[in-house]
Amino acid sequence: MTTAGRDPFARYRERLDAVGFRPSSTRGQNFLLDPSLHRCIADAAAPRATDLVLEVGVGLGFLTRELAPRCAALVGVEIDDRLLAIARDELRPFANVELVLADAIGGDGGTLHPAVTAALAARQPADGAFLVVANLPYAASGPLLAELSCLHRAPDRIVVLVQRELAQRLAAAPGSSDYGGLAAQLQVGYAIEQLRTVGAEVFRPRPKVQSALLRLERRADAPVLPAAARRQFSAFARTLFGKRRKVLRTTLAEAAAAIGGQLPALGEALLARRAETLTPRELLDLWARTAPPRAAGAP
């Protein structure tokens, strides 16, 4: 059973009208209707029969129906109870799917919601990869990707549909105007590739911006760091990029204070550089020299 066998969207529209549903732009409720794009996203993620998939923003379950037959288990998260009720009905044939009603990053401090964490832990296969595959709500995309990279077990592969401008920023090279703290944080652990642009015409309702399909593949040489250390590096990078145009001589003290660290002895050439010119690995090395001793696992 795939998207090829689903009812026309007009039928779903009737069900949505019956429960008084109106799409919320705040929640990024834009339904991706093109079945070929659902297959494209699933193909790009390439889940295997041993893998666990997390899908954030299940909506009506269109993408879920492409993913479920390909993986060992799928945890789907939906913030809207009306959509979740329809998705549960649609996805009943798939015993390997667990749906969770939650704001995915509704945990303390914007962390992954405890119900989602518990569902992932319960479904984790003994042998297999952890993938995140989703048509993400625009507003939550950046914070969610930052949180995913800081999990105890970070995803091995992330394939997501996001706003095109965010995709460009995440894949940006050091020194470019699009390069920022989140890009540096993610590029330390992932090779990031923008696969294709997706126009507004394939969504209902149509968003005012274009989207892009993004793939993040875990690097073989990614540093092995505890989750706490990855969170600390994230805070360090965000602080430095908060004043991206200023040189490290004037910004590093604030970044060190943000993580409870101390200023290291650095050469004048490095202190004269700006955060936006540093590669992800250079930023990681700078964090390691600045971090307090308790940041176990610092390279």
Protein structure class: alpha/beta
Low-confidence spans: none
Just give the CATH class of the largest domain. Answer: Alpha Beta
What does the main sheet amount to? 7 strands, mixed
In CATH, the topology of the largest domain is named Rossmann fold
Q: Strand arrangement, largest sheet?
A: 4-3-2-5-6-9-7
**Intertermini distance:** 47 Å
SS field, number of helical segments: 12
The value of Rg in angstroms is 20 Å
**Which percent band covers the strand fraction?**
15-25%
Counted up, domains total: 2
Q: Summarize model confidence as the mean pLDDT.
A: 93
Corresponding CATH architecture of the largest domain: 3-Layer(aba) Sandwich
Kindly state the percentage of residues in helix: 25-40%
Shape: elongated
Order of helices and strands: HEHEHEHEHEHEHHEEEHHHH
Number of beta-strand segments: 9
Superfamily (CATH H level) name of the largest domain = Vaccinia Virus protein VP39
Question: Which properties best describe this structure?
Answer:
single chain, Rossmann fold, Helicase, Ruva Protein, domain 3, 12 helices, 299 residues, elongated, two-stranded antiparallel ribbon, alpha/beta
Brief summary of the model shown:
Helix content is 38%, strand content 17%. With 299 residues, the chain is an alpha/beta fold.
Could you characterize what this model shows?
The strands form two sheets. Strands 4-3-2-5-6-9-7 form a seven-stranded mixed beta sheet, sandwiched between helices. Strands 1-8 form a two-stranded antiparallel sheet. With 299 residues, the protein is an alpha/beta fold. The mean pLDDT is 93. The chain starts with 8 loop residues before the first helix and ends in a 9-residue tail after the last helix. It folds into two domains: 3-218, Vaccinia Virus protein VP39 (Rossmann fold, 3-Layer(aba) Sandwich), CATH 3.40.50; 227-290, Helicase, Ruva Protein, domain 3, CATH 1.10.8. It has helices at residues 9-18, 35-45, 62-67, 81-90, 114-123, 138-148, 164-170, 181-189, 227-241, 248-258, 268-271, 280-290; strands at residues 31-32, 52-56, 73-78, 97-101, 130-135, 157-163, 190-198, 203-204, 211-218.
